[in-house]
């Protein structure tokens, strides 16, 4: 895994209907869903989302009993680390939680499913591939362009992730009485932002914005494929526009791209 420690290297959708979700994201982002080919590893129902050039995300059904535990469809992110066991131990020592201990996937890598001290879930992983992950790439459509955390205590969240992954604050935008939209960076490269949890948000969470070539065309694709747009298109710095929406199964997602018209 040649990516620096602390970079997002993978994204994963857990959903109640994998086939319908694959069709939706195919219509909106042009992704193709395929079965991974890993020698010696049996079929599990896991699928890979591909832009046609490279894999950028995973897709799987919600585990049995998830709904009874209050877990619904949603996106999760994987942060690349040098040592999964050491990272998991440090996160627990800092007040985080462990949902799945460090585990090996033959031919794929080692990972752990954790949560920060404010209850927001995420994975840490060290991939087995000698090639760098490009799942997070702000220059290419179909890849994740922005990682956004909503947290009840953004200052504490930045301190936690900064200690674990080396993230640093790189400026901020005021949000009035709500506080600040803090930009986060690793080694000078912006990864996304941390913002206060809005009063009407159901829970603190990581939200991921995927890049599109035309925001208006993407908006039409979202509604045409049965999704819902909750916010936008709204202009953001860089002559870009964002959409915040949910897919037909209820998983929240974001889109970001230019306006071509």
TrEMBL record:
Xref: InterPro entries: Anthracycline_SecMetBiosynth (IPR052164), Glyas_Bleomycin-R_OHBP_Dase (IPR029068), Glyas_Fos-R_dOase_dom (IPR004360), VOC_core (IPR037523)
SUPFAM superfamilies per record: Glyoxalase/Bleomycin resistance protein/Dihydroxybiphenyl dioxygenase
Sequence ranges assigned to domain VOC in this UniProt record: 7-127, 140-258
Pfam entry (one): Glyoxalase
Domain of life: Bacteria
Name of protein: VOC family protein
């Amino acid at each position: 895994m040649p990516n620096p420690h602390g970079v997002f290297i993978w994204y994963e959708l857990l959903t109640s209907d994998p086939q319908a979700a694959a069709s939706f994201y195919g219509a909106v982002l042009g992704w193709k869903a395929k079965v991974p080919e890993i020698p010696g590893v049996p079929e599990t129902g896991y699928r890979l989302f591909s832009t046609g050039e490279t894999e950028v995300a995973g897709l799987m059904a919600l585990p049995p009993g998830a709904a009874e535990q209050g877990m619904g469809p949603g996106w999760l992110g994987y942060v690349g680390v040098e040592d999964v066991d050491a990272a998991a131990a440090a996160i627990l020592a800092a007040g985080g939680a462990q949902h799945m201990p460090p585990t090996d996937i033959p031919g794929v890598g080692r990972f752990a499913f954790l949560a920060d001290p404010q209850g927001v879930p995420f994975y840490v992983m060290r991939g087995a591939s000698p090639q760098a992950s490009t799942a997070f790439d702000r220059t290419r459509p179909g890849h994740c362009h922005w990682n956004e955390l909503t947290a009840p205590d953004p200052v504490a969240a930045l301190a936690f992730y900064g200690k674990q992954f080396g993230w640093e604050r790189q400026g901020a935008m005021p949000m009035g009485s709500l506080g600040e939209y803090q930009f986060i960076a690793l080694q000078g490269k912006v990864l996304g932002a941390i913002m206060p949890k809005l009063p009407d948000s159901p829970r603190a969470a990581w939200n991921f914005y995927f890049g599109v070539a035309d925001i208006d065309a993407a908006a039409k694709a979202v509604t045409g494929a049965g999704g819902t747009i909750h916010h936008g298109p709204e202009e953001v710095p860089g002559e870009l526009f964002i959409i915040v929406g949910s897919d037909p199964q209820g998983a929240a997602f974001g889109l970001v791209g230019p306006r071509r018209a």
